[in-house]
Amino acid sequence: MRLYSLLAAAKINLYLEIVGSRPDGFHELIMVMQSISLCDRITVRSIGVDEIRVRCDHPLVPADETNLAYKAAALVSDRCPGVMAKLGGVEITIEKQIPVGAGLAGGSSNAAAVLVGLDLLWNLGLTRIELQELGAELGSDIPFCVSGGTAIATGRGEQLDPLPGIDNLHLVLAKYESEFVSTPWAYKTYRAEYGDTYLTDAQSWQQRQSQVRSGEMVRSVAQRDAKALGQHLCNDFEKIVLPAHPKTAALKETMTSLGGLGTLMSGSGPSVFTLAESEAEAESLATRLRAALPDPDLGVWTAQFVSGGVQMGG
Ligand code: C5P
Question: Are residues 26 and 121 both part of a single domain?
Answer without folding.
Answer: yes
